[in-house]
Amino acid sequence: PASAVLCACFGSAGLKGHGYTSTLSLYSPSCRSRLLESQLQGQKKVYENELEILRGEVQNLKEEINRQQQLLAQNLQLPPEARIEASLQHEITRLTNENLDLMEQLEKQDKTVRKLKKQLKVFAKKIGELEVGQTENVSPAQLADEPIRPVNIPRKEKDFQGMLEYKKDDELKLIKNLILELKPRGVAVNLIPGLPAYILFMCVRHADYINDDQRVRSLLTSTINGIKKILKKRSDDFEIVSFWLSNTSRFLHCLKQYSGEEAFMKHNTPRQNDHCLRNFDLAEYRQVISDLAIQIYQQLTKVLENALQPMIVSGMLEHETIQGVSGLKPTGLRKRTSSVADEGTYTLDSIVRQLNNFHSIMCQHGMDPELIKQIVKQMFYIIGSVTLNNLLLRKDMCSWSKGMQIRYNVSQLEEWLRDKNLQTSGAKETLEPLIQAAQLLQVKKKTDEDAEAICSMCNAITTAQIVKVLNLYTPVNEFEERVTASFIRTIQVRLQNRKDSPQLLMDAKHIFPVTFPFNPSSLALESIQIPGSMNLGFLLRV
Asked: Which of 157, 166, 238, 348 is such that its CA lies 20 to 30 A from the CA of 221?
């Protein structure tokens, strides 16, 4: 350092007697050169460090560019669908890595803040001790004459434990403001997904913390009754039902995650393990809340069915999505559809828009991805079963051209699943009976080889359904023949040993069993803030 050079040249006394700038002119030429050399070496080290950092950044950028070029080269060799999927996978990986880096930085900053707070407390304590020592050395007369100076009293930062305290008399107000009068749209868009569930659990945690079994029982019972009440009042509102299905399942996950059972603590942080319930085992209430979630799911299925039902026949069967095919109408039948949808009628686009709306709302509510997959599977089953049932009842729909229209419409639904990354939901499989019925309308139906191919292909529809489609099949023009009775008998003989249901129509009201796979949250309870718009100012963070 420059000061060390100065001391070496003139001693500490020289530095005390002169200012740094004025003294410099008094130094000998050799001392000044040493001083300048010392400064240059210090600046050189700083520049070398900065240069090393910049070189590292350049190297990282080069590696990233190489990775991007390799990915681009690989993608160009893939088909379009695989190219899109590979690009998405790369982007997801990149964002995940960035997220991990940011989390590491946040943890380091948190550690630094805690360290600085501790140091601040130590320094404040030392300053206080020094002030006390100085006061003891001052005479009473001096203390009386000295004016009182204002003292800043810092507010001690409270270390919250992730609990919410409320008075017993405020329980009804809590249920009213948090459940009965809460508007999901504002909460879903602006706040943490599942916030009502977290608030309810933090209230349960405090009741457990103070070992008040009566309050725990009362709060859980009031919560369940409140959810049932709002769902009964707004039974046909998809947004309300979806919101409370999401929050009920999240509340169920919280009761598991903080139960203290080892099976549910594997993904917890040490702080989250500290927040586990201490006094009560709520396993029986978990079962009750699970049953409530199942009821809400079944109610949501009915809402979906009521919304989709008016669209399905028109959008999947009657409206001609492929322009020009309408000219090929069944011989002897009046054309019932038009290439342009009439005002007020539904098209395939209407169905897709409804699916987008449902999916967007569920995502805004923070619904578990696995639960969304089950709901989408149920929606696609409703679409497939209603379409097939109407196909089996309408002769004007059983033609080669209609089979092509149906297959195209199904491909658009499959494309929607890919766009939403829901290929593994099982939804596509629910459309298989409809797909096979559409293929049956398009394949040749003359020879024994054709009969063998049909029996092999149509394994998702019953014998009764196959025979019905063949009986209803109507040629699209005079060059195509009807299916002969002998061909239909050949099909029946080949399929007589197949063990399937004699029922012709699918059960469009069938609801798949729902499950709620455990999905722990990484959200720290102590970090949750309650906005004033929820009117829960009577809750006290503990």
From this structure: 238
**Residue 224 structure tokens:** 């369940």
Token reading at 147: 């004016």
By three-state DSSP, how is residue 148 classified?
Answer: coil
Decide the pairing of beta strands 164-165 and 540-541: antiparallel
Alpha carbons within 13 A on the beta-carbon side of 540 = 9
Joined tokens for residue 214 = 């009566």
Centroid of chain to Cα 83: 24
Largest CA distance in the chain: 125
Can you point out the beta strands (E) in 138-202?
164-165
Lookup: tokens for 252: 């169920």
Please give the Cα distance from 373 to 430 (Å, whole number).
13
For the residues of 317-330, what is the DSSP string, one character each? Answer: IIS--STTGGGSPP
φ, ψ (nearest 5 deg) of residue 529: -110, 140
Q: What is the rounded CA–CA span in Å between residue 178 and residue 199?
A: 9
Two tokens at 349?
Answer: 């686009």
pLDDT tens string for the chain (542 positions)?
555 544 455 444 444 444 444 455 555 677 778 888 888 888 888 888 889 899 988 988 888 888 778 777 777 777 777 777 777 777 787 787 787 888 888 888 888 888 888 888 888 878 877 766 665 555 555 544 555 555 454 444 467 899 999 999 999 999 999 999 999 887 766 788 999 999 999 999 999 999 999 999 999 999 999 999 999 999 999 999 999 999 999 999 999 999 999 999 999 999 999 999 999 999 999 999 999 999 999 999 999 999 999 999 999 999 887 765 554 444 444 444 433 445 568 999 999 999 999 999 999 999 999 999 999 999 999 999 999 999 999 999 999 999 999 999 999 999 999 999 999 999 999 999 999 999 999 999 999 999 999 999 999 999 999 999 999 998 877 767 889 999 999 999 999 999 888 889 999 999 999 999 999 999 999 999 999 989 999 999 99
**DSSP assignment of 347-381:** -HHHHHHHHHHHHHHHHHTT--HHHHHHHHHHHHH
* Burial environment of residue 511 by CB neighbours within 10 A (0 to 12, 13 to 18, 19 or more): middle
- Chain-centroid distance of CA 214 in Å reads 35
Report d(CA 110, CA 341) in Å as an integer.
Answer: 60
CB 230 within 8 A of CB 247: no
Q: Which amino acid is at 220?
A: L
CA 124/CA 517 separation, integer angstroms: 51
Kind and range of the H or E element at 83? helix 80-136
| 254 token code pair | 């919280």
| 76 burial type by CB count under 10 A (0-12 exposed, 13-18 middle, 19+ buried) | exposed
- 380 close to 427: Cβ distance less than 8 angstroms: yes
> Among candidates 411, 409, 452, 459, which has minimal Cα distance to 433?
459
Phi–psi pair at 129, nearest 5 degrees: -65, -40
